Amino acid sequence: MSLVAPPGTSTHAGPGGYASDLLSLVMEANWEQLSHAPGIRRRTIPATMNPGKTTTTERMLYYSGHTRRIGDVDEGSTVTDFLPAERSRGITIQSAAVTFHWPPLGEVSDVKTGVPQSHIPHTINLIDTPGHADFTFEVLRSLRILDGAVCILDGVAGVEAQTEKVWAQANRYSIPRIVFVNKLDRDGAAFERTVKEVGTRLRGWPAICQIPWWEGGKGKFMGVGDAINLCALKWEGGDGKRIQTYDMEELKQYDAGLRDELIQARLALVEILCEFDEVLLSTWLEHNDDALKVPPQAIRDSLRRCILDGSGRLIPVFAGASFRNIGVQPLLDAVDNFLPNPKERPDPEISLNGQEYKLSELLRGDLPVITAAHKRMVKKSHSPKELVAQIEGCALAFKVANHPKRGVLVYIRVYSGSIKRNASLWNTNLHVSEQAQRLLQMQASDALEISHIPAGQIGVIAGLKHARTGDTLVSYHGHNSKTGPPAPLNTLQLRPIEIPPPVFFAAIEPDSLSEEKNVKEILQLMLREDPSLHVNIDEESGQMLLSGMGELHLEIARDRLVNDFKAKATMGNIEISYRECVLSPTAAHRVLFDRDIAGKKAKAACEASVGPIDEVSPTESHTVERDGNRITILVIGSLGENSSEGDSSLPTDLPLPTIQAALVNGAVAALARGPRRNFPLHASHVTLKFESTTDLFGSDTSPAALSSASRLAVGAALNEAFDGGNIGLMEPVMNVVISCNEGSLGTIVHDISSARGGHVLSLENDGNEDASSDLPSIDPQRIYAPPDPFASGGGMDKAGPGQQRQVTARVPLKEMVGYLKHLRSLTGGRGTFVMSVDRFERLSGPREKAV
């Protein structure tokens, strides 16, 4: 799924201050069929924010036999929320993995649906991830390695802004999804409204597979009607293991109203599937257009075919109430039945020497880049295909966690081959080799030692010293631990994870000078765990500055630093990370770098000028985009446009790409701190000119020397701009989506527009389609959903006093600090909001003086 939402901070609030009513993709599971069907594996992610993600996880563990009692979020007894901060706050902060079997080994599902797929035990690797918007990065790095998803929605809150945000991420990675509408036992739950919001706001056609069963039509929620199998399932209290099944004949006597609605649900389900699937259309025609006679297995197969592409245009919908133990077992069966085998997923993308390919193309050994590399090898003891065949395993490190007893744990997904115990792993990002001494299968805070991690599976490597989130690890038979596999295999990279820029920061002060080293080491551990945190040192004050995605994100980081890692340090007030910009072009500054580096003589020169970025990117030279800035490299002379990497005038150890990379690295380092307030530069265009005849000094010119010359030259240009008053300040402006009731709408719009200097972009009924989506809109009148027995009437398009409204605005981040408390006071505690970085904008005169 390709990231559509802008990379940036997201902060969201709800009652209690922890986004308790916002929803997002959260749970993920990855399946491997056992000996019943060798070689087949499955992966999925049930997802939710606070619509019951961890609660649903606990029920899954209990019904699978993994636990003997049901954990409770309020009691702090859950398996997956095991950090002290998670249990005290009642929210999920970091991803946790658990492995269990469904159905339990040696058994079949408790629900007698007659589905072969759900009667075969599967090994499930479930990853419970956070739902709060400050921890969106935790969700994104888990989405990266998934094959399927279940989005759990709160039946009361419906589809909210954070739901849409994470759904867009799932669209980017083309992850097949099903929806579970949870909390239907709560007052105010509205299944019909939620289903129509799925269609209008997530832009997918809901295929309702289950409908709620209310006692007497308007009583308590006690079960579901199954539109696929044409039966009703009633949970009879207790722990949810006793399920009574009623067929259509029995429903005539027991609940005729549910039977009639179930027939309507089956007709609607077959009708929508026939629009997407010609195979089911043929089956329907064979049964004389009678939807009730279409076999359940044909419907299951059709649903599976329709969601395999991950487009999200058809969304199977299920119903339940996890806290009341209703609907979880059929949900697990649905994951078995509908979500794909990893072999049915798109081929993973890889990069070799900066060029994009598919993993299967590499494994076949017929890539031109492999053939060309083989021709250049001195020893050609293997053919290109044999060369590639020596790759024993290829994996992506998608999460790094620090365990108090086991040390650093690196979570990986294996994409090809297998990773074996004691295998040498080459880190293609850091170009270092490490040994996988221990392999683990995680059970939240517990773990089981295993001998290998096969392709398609998720596992953990304990004890790696260097691996970070997003690194690619390659196991290669007989490779050199210093150089890794032969080129270009040593540059193999699976698609990296994008890290959004932080916009909040706070100062970290060790209690004493002797404690400073320990604090820095702990912060480095925290950065390996969470790359969305950043640490830098203020050159003027010497303070350590910790940057993060939001107020709660930094609060949790402080708690972990002091309480979990026992660091003797304090954190200052949370501040905003501004940016600096160049207002007008500077003159060219040539700098000659001539000093020793690590005891060796180093000498190089280059020329730099800096100006504001323009809209047109030059194509005739080497240009890269970094952190909102543009860097152009002009190489003149014998290394110029008409020369190639193999030009004889170039030193053999200093090819053109190396020179360009070194100059870019130096410019990036200079742009990291502006001359005015030490904020990073943004929207600036650096032009670097390198002449081989004057700037190259034989063997003394190394990449390190080139980087230093580039850094100094760019720094000189920036200082000139500062002396001339041409450095401006920029502030982050946020996209803010506020959900509130109709009665609070006017007050919120006035507050945003006047007191906070924001611009209101749109006012919508909560449930109207998102005009920014690329997918076509869906008419809610065409969406089937059973009527809500407790609905107040008026429909989705008529805004009454209690109607939920949505305000979309652009507001400076400074004005949104502490907005949660203010919003709660304006809305009587019922308002929620989510925000993400839109762009950085130049500060106006009065606002600049205030900063």
UniProtKB/TrEMBL annotation:
One Gene Ontology term from the biological process aspect of the record: mitochondrial translation
Main location: mitochondrion
Matching Pfam families: EF-G_D2, EFG_C, EFG_III, GTP_EFTU
Physiological role: Catalyzes the GTP-dependent ribosomal translocation step during translation elongation. During this step, the ribosome changes from the pre-translocational (PRE) to the post-translocational (POST) state as the newly formed A-site-bound peptidyl-tRNA and P-site-bound deacylated tRNA move to the P and E sites, respectively. Catalyzes the coordinated movement of the two tRNA molecules, the mRNA and conformational changes in the ribosome.
Subcellular localization(s) per the UniProt record: Mitochondrion
Domain Tr-type G: 38-343
GO cellular component terms given for this protein: mitochondrial matrix
Lineage: Eukaryota, Fungi, Dikarya, Ascomycota, Pezizomycotina
GO molecular function annotation: GTP binding; GTPase activity
Name of the featured protein: Ribosome-releasing factor 2, mitochondrial
Keywords of the record: GTP-binding, Mitochondrion, Nucleotide-binding, Protein biosynthesis
Source superkingdom: Eukaryota
Matching InterPro entries: EF-G-like_DII, EFG2, EFG_II, EFG_III, EFG_III/V, EFG_V, EFG_V-like, G_TR_CS
Homology family: Belongs to the TRAFAC class translation factor GTPase superfamily. Classic translation factor GTPase family. EF-G/EF-2 subfamily.
SMART domains the record matches: EFG_C
CDD domains referenced in this protein's UniProt entry, alphabetically: EFG_III, EFG_mtEFG_C
Binding-site residues for GTP, renumbered to this chain: D128, T129, P130, G131, H132, N182, K183, L184, D185
